[in-house]
Design goal:
By secondary structure, the protein is of the alpha/beta class. It contains 8 helices and 7 strands, in the order βαβαβαβαβααααββ.
């Protein structure tokens, strides 16, 4: 019997990456379901109803961005973690606008990926336990992910960086950045910019108590 029979659907055209992801899943006792393209992934999603989807961005024929859109027409609730070499925030924002939940940068690091999967499994379980609504109340913004970031920042008495928040919540840097921008527009966090060093100013964030 695997760990709570958790099923992870992995969509990637690179079979070596799929093998590596399957190995990580088997190590954790999760059930790996592999697909080498979006069309196959959609079929296997409908067949297996996985708990989480991992999807590559750059794939031939149908890329991951289209894949996320198609998956969201089937399920508004399943966590979707995008695998990508892209670190550009605008790409992350576009993915989150269409329904992605989080990101994992390639090359994949097992501890990082496991942490991200565990975060979203806990969020999903919390939603079920509290009979909450997983639907995003604003495009690209999940209430439960907001709460995860808020709960961490409320415990701090000083400013902190996106890197620290990412490390301590298990969310990707791009995801945290996106949510902090939203929280800033809602006047929930204040931003401090350090111009003390040469180059781009460093930003840090603090929860408004």
């Amino acid at each position: 019997m695997m760990s709570d029979d958790i099923k992870i659907l992995m969509i990637d055209d690179n079979r070596e990456i799929l093998f590596a992801l399957s190995t990580i899943c088997e190590y954790k006792g999760w059930i790996p379901i592999i697909a080498t393209g979006v069309e196959e992934g959609i079929i296997k999603y409908k067949e297996h109803q996985p708990d989480i989807v991992l999807i590559d961005y750059h794939m031939p024929m149908i890329n991951g961005m289209v894949g996320v859109k198609l998956l969201r027409t089937i399920s508004e609730t399943v966590p979707i973690i995008v695998l990508t070499v892209e670190e550009k925030q605008e790409i992350a924002d576009t993915f989150m606008d269409i329904g992605a939940s989080d990101f994992a940068l390639k090359p994949i690091k097992a501890p990082d990926l496991i942490a991200r999967i565990n975060v979203h499994l806990k969020l999903k379980n919390s939603i079920v336990e509290h009979n909450a609504d997983y639907k995003q109340y604003r495009k690209g913004i999940s209430i439960r992910t907001l709460e995860l970031i808020e709960n961490y920042m409320r415990e701090l008495n000083d400013y902190t960086s996106i890197t620290n928040i990412s490390k301590n919540t298990g969310l990707a840097y791009q995801t945290v950045h996106r949510y902090l921008q939203h929280l800033s527009t809602c006047n929930k966090v204040v931003i401090h910019q350090d111009y003390g060093s040469i180059g781009r100013p460093k930003k840090s964030y603090k929860w408004v108590k």
